[in-house]
């Protein structure tokens, strides 16, 4: 996309709990802490460095043992409300689009309506979801951050 030249409708969501797609071959247990794996799917936290702990707990038990990534969904409750803004996803030749594997990880601002996976740009927020035909839901509410997502002086 390119920078805005006229008004556009904008979408904002406030999320405290939501259904999230489970990783392959996992069982979510009610009350357990939630992590997002390197493929962008949710699972019980194991402390593996490839996972991002998302500050949430499972609100139900869901068994995806033997299932593929995203075959089952589990209700999660976040410890703080997320304030999400719908952005355009970087597309076109030479682009670095935000992808499913970027869920719960930093994305970067390309212009006043577009986010990218290109980490040479300034930090935008945390990817909540990537929806084909809709865009990227970004959590801008994580607080002040430096250019590459590190906590800022006020964080």
- Report the portion of residues in β strands: 35-45%
Shape: elongated
Order of helices and strands: EEEEEEEEEEE
As residue ranges, the low-confidence spans are none
Please give the largest β-sheet: 5 strands, mixed, barrel
Taking the alpha carbons of the first and last residues, their distance comes to 31 Å
Q: Give the radius of gyration.
A: 16 Å
Query: How large is the count of helical segments?
Result: 0
The mean pLDDT is: 90
User: What strand order characterises the main sheet?
Assistant: 7-9-8-10-11
Tally of extended strands?
11
Query: What percent of the residues sit in helical stretches (DSSP H or I)?
Result: under 10%
The structural class is mainly beta
Can you give me a brief rundown of this structure?
By secondary structure, the protein is an all-beta fold.
Keywords:
155 residues, 0% helix, single chain, elongated, mainly beta, two-stranded antiparallel ribbon, 5-stranded mixed barrel
Provide an overview of this structure.
With 155 residues, this protein is mainly beta. The chain is 0% helix and 43% strand. It has strands spanning 12-21, 27-28, 33-36, 42-44, 52-58, 62-63, 73-89, 106-109, 114-116, 122-131, 135-139. It is elongated and about 50 Å long. It starts with 11 loop residues before the first strand and ends in a 16-residue tail after the last strand.
């Amino acid at each position: 996309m390119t920078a805005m030249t006229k008004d556009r409708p904008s979408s904002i969501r406030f999320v405290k709990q939501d259904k999230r797609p489970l990783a392959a071959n996992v069982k979510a247990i009610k009350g357990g802490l939630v992590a997002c794996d390197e493929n962008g799917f949710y699972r019980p936290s194991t402390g593996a460095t490839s996972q991002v702990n998302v500050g949430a707990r499972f609100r139900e038990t869901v068994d995806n043992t033997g299932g593929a990534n995203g075959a089952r969904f589990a209700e999660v409750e976040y410890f703080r409300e997320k304030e999400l803004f719908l952005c355009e996803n970087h597309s076109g030749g030479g682009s670095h689009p935000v992808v499913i594997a970027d869920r719960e990880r930093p994305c970067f601002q390309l212009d006043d309506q577009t986010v990218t996976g290109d980490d040479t740009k300034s930090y935008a927020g945390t990817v909540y979801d990537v929806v084909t035909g809709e865009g990227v839901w970004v959590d801008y509410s994580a607080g002040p951050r430096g250019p590459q997502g590190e906590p800022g002086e006020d964080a």
